[in-house]
Each structure stands twice: as structure tokens, then as C-alpha cells.
Amino acid sequence: MVDLRQLRDDPERFRKGAEKKGFTVNIDEVLRCDDERRRLQAAIDRRRQDLGLKSARMKKAGDEERRKLQDELKNFSREIKIDEIKLRQKESDLEAGLLLIPNPPLEDVPVGKDESGNIEIRRWGEPPEFSFEPKDHVELGAAHDLFDIERGVKVAGTRSYYLKNEGAMLEDALMRYAMDFLVKRGYTPFVTPVIVREECMVGSGYFPVGTEEAYAIEKDGLYLIGTSEVALLSYHKDEILTEEELPKKYAASTTCFRREAGSYGKDTRGLYRVHQFQKIEQVVICRDDPDEMQKLHEELLRNAEEIVQGLGLPYRVVEVCTGEMGMGQIKKHDIECWMPGRGGFGETHSCSSFGDFQSRRSKLRFKGADGKNRFPFTLNNTAAASPRLLIAILETCQNPDGSVTVPDALVPYMNGKTRIG
RNA sequence: GGAGAGAUGGCUGAGUGGUCGAAAGCGGCGGUCUUGAAAACCGUUGUCCCUCCCGGGACCGGGGGUUCGAAUCCCUCUCUCUCCGCCA
């Protein structure tokens, strides 16, 4: 959620921000709503004061005065009540409008309307040159019985799959490896709920824009998370933290669920785009200091890069342009790992800074040194996601004989197994 | 699934129609004392909105109602808890 005061002071900034991101919003209407709300509020305040004073007199008034006052005040208070209902309506209109205004990207974010506007900022590792005809992960999976997509579809519909044998173990190994890495870096490990209340979806910024992307459990008014960021962020929802306990550095291991609505026909082969996957996610809550946020953004990015480097997977980091950003993000980098089967890079990680957007929505605050409550800044990044990373691993580490070498970092988590097939 | 209980400030918890933004305790902050700390004692300490200021207003889970006046009474929704049953 955007700061109403800032919106009033500089609506142009938010208009431009929304435009850069490709969102349509009616900021004038929100401001008009705010204006009417304040006018109503002021009028009500004045009359309430009046009513309060006269009511207080009632207690010690004589019979006659009392009767007179009662008649007068009866209507008076009815009118106030009517206005209060109008006010409440305005307030909820305003709130609804505010929820639709995207957070303007930082000034230095490249402007663009789709991924062609992203800027590659560095590469690590060399895409492998195969002396043989490399297989893609679907073929490798079939060869070693690592997963079963057909039966996944039979059981759960399109974009579903089973992992089995070393495929199942590899996912587990990857998750453990990534989590251990973060715990060593001082992150608090979590396993969180994957089913959350609507307010958590709103709080993290995925609702109301984006409801189509989440699975709903209508009967209970609950939703499946698309990322543990939602649950991790909501952990401190409605709380007031102390400045000393910041930054909070969290890591969660969960299943994630995405409907992938509107992506029909896209990435239909293999395990690249699926409805359910495993992920270790990093979330940080820090003071409302842009410099600190930037440092932590870099830390989150570095963590992910080192995790990928540890697997020996070539990748590149791209700075994501305005048009590819979500509602709340003000800065975003993706890590894309080399996937030989695609003959290109595929997104495996996404690192975002939100400023106070999410904390405002989640009513998450901290008490500053001056005793004032403030909204902290939040950030998050993937640490490892499967099966996307499995694709990169299988395809990159395949051998001429069709076997796959297990990355050294995962061997301990594979019970010492160094090779698949 | 059945039966109850409850929702009050950072926390615990009192408050059943006006003097209640709300007792008390804890916690926090400031001070006295102390070589320092602890203890003790004194003071202070909710959130939000409008306003240049002075000041005003709202908030006792949400919404509606009764009343001149509601934390307090009524309705409703949401949430939490306890017991029983069922089950992982």
C-alpha cells in the first residue's frame, strides 16, 4: 500500500510509476475520494463535539431543559449517524482504491514494457559445450525414471508431475542444501502454513490484483500460497517490532501453488512451469532506510548466487525492467540459470525490494529510537526452487553416456550418491 | 460434527449506561539512590485522523441498532479458546 500522504503531495510520481509498470489506475478518483472523506470527517468532528457538550449537560439539567435538549439532540445525532455511514463508505472506497495503486519503481530501474527491457548485468560460468547430442530434462527424466509427467496429469491435471527415485531425492537434497546454506548465514529456518487467510494475500500485495493466480479454498475462505513470502511476511502482521530486533532474516521451506492462469500454451513441455513446486525463500524485514535496504537486497542476491555457484550452474543476473515488476516491487533482479534444453537462460530466482509497501498493508511496524512507530522495509528472494533448478542441474550435468553427475554440493544430501544412471 | 466461553492499550487484566481513552500489574522510558549494576522509590508511557498553530475528533474485534449519551444493552458477522466426538 502506498502512503496516502505522499500520494496527496505528489500524485504525479505515482501516476508515472503506475504507467512505467503498465498498470492502469485512477489516481484522481482516489484523491477525490480522500478529499470527500476528509471533508466529511471534519464536519462530523465538529458536530460530535457539539453533541458531546450538550449531552453532558443533560445529566444535571432540570426536567424542562432536559426535554428541550432531548428533542434537539435526537435529530442532531441522527444526522451525524447518517453522515458517519457515508464516511465509512468513503473510507472503504478509499482503501479499495489505495490497494490498487502500485508502488513506484526506484528511479534507476530500467523502463521497459516486457522482458526485452530487462538488462543483463553479469554472467557466471560458461554454458557447457557438449560433444554429443544433449538430452533435455524430459528425456533424461524418462531415461532414469526420475519423474512421471503423464501420470501426474492423469492424477492432478495439466502441469502436474510426480518426482521419483533420484528425482525425488534430488529435490530434497537441493532444499536441504539451500536451507543449510542460509542457516549458516544467520537466517532463521521456517516451515510455514501454505494455506493462509485472505488478509495475508492482501498484506503481501498479491491481492486484490492477482487473485486469479492463487488457488482458493472457497469453503473456508482460505488460499494456497504461491510463495512462502506470504506466510513469512504475515508472521509479524499487526505487530510492532523493536528497532533492535531488526533486521529479521528468515528462510522458509514450503510447497508453493500457482494456477498459472493466462499462461495456457506457454512452457508446456516438461517441468518448467508447474502448478506445485518446492521452494526455499528468503525474507528480510529491515529498518526504513533505503541504503540498508539496498545492502540487504545485494545480500539476498549474493546468497542466491552463491547457492547456484555451489551447484556449478552457469547463470546470469538481470535487472528487471519496470514493465515486468509486480504491484509492490520497487527493485528487482532475476537470476536465470542456463538450461541446455531451452538453449537459453531460464528464470530460477527472483529478488525484490518493496520499501514499506508490504508492511503498510500488513500493519507491520517497528518502534523507532525516537519512540515513533514506523513501517519497516521488506525484501525477498528465492534461495532454491524445484523443479526449475532440477532442470538446470540435469541438463547441465549430463554425461555422454546419458548419466548425470550429481553436483558435489548435493552429494552429502544424496547419501553419497555421485551419479544418476 | 456436538456443547459452551470469550474478544479491552506492547502484554496480563479490571470495568454492565454519563465523571472511561479506560483501574491495576508487568514491560518500556526518565530520574533518585549506587563506584557500577540489581533492588527499592518517584515520575512518565496506547493507536490513528484533521490542523501552520491553538486545538478537535475517532478507536475497548468488524458492522448495524437502542439512547440525549454505549467499552457497558440488543442484533449480526468475523476471530479465538475450552470440553466431547471423529481423525492424521
Distance between the termini: 51 Å
Second-tier CATH architecture of the largest domain: 2-Layer Sandwich
Average pLDDT number: 93
**Major sheet: arrangement of strands:** 1-11-12-13-16-10-9-4
* CATH topology call of the largest domain: BirA Bifunctional Protein, domain 2
Strand content: 15-25%
The coarse overall form would be elongated
Largest sheet: 8 strands, mixed
Helix content: 40-55%
Class derived from helix and strand content: alpha+beta
CATH homologous superfamily heading of the largest domain: Bira Bifunctional Protein, Domain 2
Give a description of the structure:
By secondary structure, this protein is of the alpha+beta class. It folds into 2 domains: about 5-100, Serine-tRNA synthetase, tRNA binding domain (Helix Hairpins); about 115-420, Bira Bifunctional Protein, Domain 2 (BirA Bifunctional Protein, domain 2). Helices cover about 40% and strands about 20% of the residues. It contains 12 helices and 18 strands. The strands form 5 sheets. Strands 1-11-12-13-16-10-9-4 form an 8-stranded mixed sheet. A hairpin with a 4-residue loop joins strand 6 (about 215) and strand 7 (about 220-225). Helix 3 (about 25-60) runs antiparallel to helix 4 (about 65-100). The chain is elongated. The structure holds one RNA strand of 88 nucleotides.
